[in-house]
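Help needed: design a sequence for this.
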């Protein structure tokens, strides 16, 4: 894979920096949902990581604009950076929703979604680490795993909303939690979007 293309390992390193930063954000979100001891501080810490992620994205785009020969198609580098950036953006939005809606406790379904988000981010990190290596089948398998996690998040979200409509009598709480569940699920959608770009890159450069 990529055997005939001059490699600039700096791009791969920057992508790995992004995914490692994303994992830290996902860990903070999971801890926020699991323990709920100081959600405002958790949200501030996630926001700091989101700013760090933006800085890495800008570094990738700046390097893209100053590199004559790139290891991947320019549009693929840009798209992958954008999709990875979206993951942490959504993690930040999830944390913001919890604070904005003055949530007092976290139901188990939200904790489950937090766990799936973290697992998805870990697999995205593993898949990105395969870029530039002779490991097409392994990268494809990781993308399939990301898709499976997204499907699981979708299932948990649907069931959570179903329970919400069955049991929640307060319409304001219903509206709040429906949006929080859907936002958590969207974070796994963003992981799947990144996986789709990775699959496309592999196919192009096989």
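Sure. Designed sequence:
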């Amino acid at each position: 894979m990529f055997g005939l293309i001059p490699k600039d390992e700096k791009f791969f390193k920057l992508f790995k920096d992004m995914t490692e930063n994303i994992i830290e954000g996902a860990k903070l979100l999971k801890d926020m949902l699991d323990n709920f001891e100081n959600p405002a501080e958790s949200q501030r810490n996630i926001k700091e990581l989101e700013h760090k992620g933006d800085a890495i994205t800008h570094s990738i785009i700046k390097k893209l604009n100053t590199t004559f020969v790139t290891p991947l198609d320019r549009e693929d580098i840009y798209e992958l950076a954008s999709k990875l950036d979206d993951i942490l953006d959504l993690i930040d939005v999830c944390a913001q929703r919890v604070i904005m809606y003055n949530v007092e406790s976290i139901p188990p379904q939200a904790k489950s979604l937090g766990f799936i988000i973290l697992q998805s981010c870990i697999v995205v990190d593993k898949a990105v680490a395969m870029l530039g290596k002779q490991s097409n089948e392994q990268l494809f398998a990781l993308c399939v795993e990301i898709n499976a996690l997204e499907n699981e998040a979708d299932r948990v979200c649907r069931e959570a909303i179903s329970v919400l409509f069955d049991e929640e009598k307060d319409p304001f709480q219903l509206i709040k939690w429906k949006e929080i569940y859907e936002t958590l699920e969207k974070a796994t959608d963003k992981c799947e979007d990144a996986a789709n770009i990775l699959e496309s890159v592999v196919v192009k450069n096989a």
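The two ends are 5 Å apart (CA to CA).
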